[in-house]
Design a protein that fits this description.
By secondary structure, this protein is an all-beta fold. The protein has one domain. It is 3% helix and 20% strand. The protein has one helix and 19 strands. Strands 3, 5, 6, 7 and 17 form a five-stranded antiparallel sheet that branches. A four-stranded antiparallel sheet has the order 4-8-9-10, with no helix packed on it. It has a two-stranded antiparallel sheet with strand order 1-19. A hairpin with a 2-residue loop joins strand 9 and strand 10. The longest helix has 9 residues. It starts with 7 loop residues before the first strand and ends with a strand.
Length: 300
């Protein structure tokens, strides 16, 4: 099929009869394959690390998508940078060494990192908030959908618990699909909130589950939320990390001190769905025009 009256070389356009999915599991650059600027997207941030010392579960990374049936975004130029957020880092102390997840970004869309789970410090707000710790003094839960966007990118964490004598339990981190569960004040950590499923890649995958709460030795731990949330830990040792490229929150750790390490958050993901379309080049340099004319490839 030639250009049909357009001045230039014989130029068969690229005709894409099907849509195209590009998944980013690390930061990179997106280049459109067609001249259509509107795309569907899935943007999931990194999950937060769990808290230490009967710590709360980390919050799932912020979850934002246009698929199916949502508002596409315009890509005014190509290529464009893509940022895939890292998961938060687990730690061994109650307050300072755990970190929240990092944001994921494409174009005008930013998903906020998941909040860090609480230890002997406040749980973080984030895409989804971290669960509160069970060890005293217990502090507030982390709030989800922070900063606020519509539709919501996540949910809040659950509260911590204690029997008031010798046992304590962390609350579950919030997930994209549900709030983190509260700890059982008798004997169990709070499960992480469920994530959200999406089929932009062609099959359903669940993302951004919250981490489970850590507990005292011998108690049932909080399970991780569906969508990559890591389970909490009972007693010394390392809690389960969130699953990579799901934005799952890390599990809260159990025992107090350096023998106990909270779970890291899972890294995020960015997925782009381009519609079917057609693209044909229409700009040539003077040198290209000369060479095409010389080789009898220029039409007018």
């Amino acid at each position: 099929m030639s250009n049909g009256g357009i001045i230039g070389p014989v130029n068969d356009p690229n005709v894409y009869t099907t849509s195209n999915v590009t998944s980013f599991t690390s930061s990179g650059t997106f280049t459109r394959r067609t001249n259509q600027a509107a795309i569907d997207f899935l943007v999931v941030a990194g999950g937060g690390a769990g808290g230490n010392s009967h710590g709360g579960g980390g919050g799932g990374g912020g979850f934002r998508t246009s698929f199916p049936g949502g508002t596409k975004i315009a890509i005014p130029s190509s290529p464009v940078p893509v940022t895939v957020g890292a998961g938060g880092t687990g730690g061994t102390t109650c307050v300072s060494t755990m970190t929240p997840g990092s944001p994921s970004i494409i174009g005008s869309i930013t998903a906020a990192g998941g909040g860090r789970g609480g230890g002997q410090g406040t749980a973080d707000n984030g895409g989804s908030g971290g669960g509160a710790a069970g060890c005293a003094p217990r502090t507030a839960i982390g709030l989800g959908n922070t900063p606020p966007v519509s539709p919501s990118q996540g949910n809040s964490g659950g509260t911590g618990g204690t029997d008031g004598v010798s046992f304590a339990q962390g609350g579950g981190g919030g997930g994209a699909g549900a709030v983190g569960n509260n700890a059982n004040n008798v004997n169990a950590g709070g499960p992480g909130g469920a994530g959200s499923a999406n089929s932009i890649t062609g099959s359903p995958v669940t993302y951004a589950g919250g981490g489970g709460g850590g507990v005292s030795t011998g108690q049932p731990v909080g399970t991780g939320g569906s969508g990559g949330g890591g389970a909490g830990k009972g007693g010394p040792g390392t809690a389960t990390a969130g699953t990579v490229n799901t934005g799952g929150g890390g599990g809260g750790s159990g025992a107090i001190g350096g023998a106990s390490i909270s779970g890291a958050g899972g890294s995020g993901i960015v997925v782009v769905l381009e519609p079917a379309g057609t693209f044909a080049s229409g700009v040539w340099s003077l040198q290209e025009q000369y060479n095409l004319k010389k080789n009898n490839q220029w039409t007018s």
